[in-house]
TrEMBL record:
<dbReference type="InterPro" id="IPR023772">
    <property type="entry name" value="DNA-bd_HTH_TetR-type_CS"/>
</dbReference>
<dbReference type="InterPro" id="IPR009057">
    <property type="entry name" value="Homeodomain-like_sf"/>
</dbReference>
<keyword id="KW-0238">DNA-binding</keyword>
<feature type="domain" description="HTH tetR-type">
    <location>
        <begin position="18"/>
        <end position="78"/>
    </location>
</feature>
<feature type="DNA-binding region" description="H-T-H motif">
    <location>
        <begin position="41"/>
        <end position="60"/>
    </location>
</feature>
<dbReference type="Pfam" id="PF17928">
    <property type="entry name" value="TetR_C_22"/>
</dbReference>
<dbReference type="InterPro" id="IPR041674">
    <property type="entry name" value="TetR_C_22"/>
</dbReference>
<dbReference type="InterPro" id="IPR050109">
    <property type="entry name" value="HTH-type_TetR-like_transc_reg"/>
</dbReference>
<protein>
    <submittedName>
        <fullName>TetR family transcriptional regulator</fullName>
    </submittedName>
</protein>
<dbReference type="InterPro" id="IPR001647">
    <property type="entry name" value="HTH_TetR"/>
</dbReference>
<dbReference type="Pfam" id="PF00440">
    <property type="entry name" value="TetR_N"/>
</dbReference>
Amino acid sequence: MSENEQKEQPRRRQARGERRIAQLLEAAANVFCTTGYTAASTNAIAREAGVSPGTLYQFFPNKEAIAIELGERLMHEMRETYGEALAPVDPATPLEEAVGAAVDRFIAFNCDHPVFFALMHGPDLPGRITEEHDALHATLLARVEDLLGSLLPDASPADLTRTAQVCLSVHKAGLELVLAHEGAERDAYVRELKDVLIRYLEPLVGDRLGRPAAVTTTRSA
């Protein structure tokens, strides 16, 4: 065997291992969404992945390790998502557009990864996931406060924190409704969520962001 072939073998094994891990994490996401974390089992995850429990244990010692790996990958993606969603807003941007763009990015992420909501807000999660989610929430809150600070320069830090907390709480409640529906009904709930946030922020922001003279309700006549 040549030297190049010897070097190539570990790389191939590593690539196969990464594909297997991705396969197991995708299966775990499906199981966690269907049964919840508490009721899920490594046997169920192995079945969903189409592998033996022994194969699963080659990569993960238990269900908790799978959840932690899945949670860490999702939170990394979420950090990238809110980095884009909460970028500074051009003062000429209409309030509806600014809110809509941020909501759309977060909704798209959660619709693409429904296990994120199920895993992060379910009971009996591993402590490490809970700690990392708390850190993620704190960072997200700080980013929302920074964004609101550019819109409300005269607001006190306490006011900004309170407003940011309300926005995040409204979004979380709306997201739960969005994920519980599909198709046109899901789209309707997304519009309602945007409408609630716009109507909450509009009197606070005033004329700082460009927008039409009046907010038009998204509900059908």
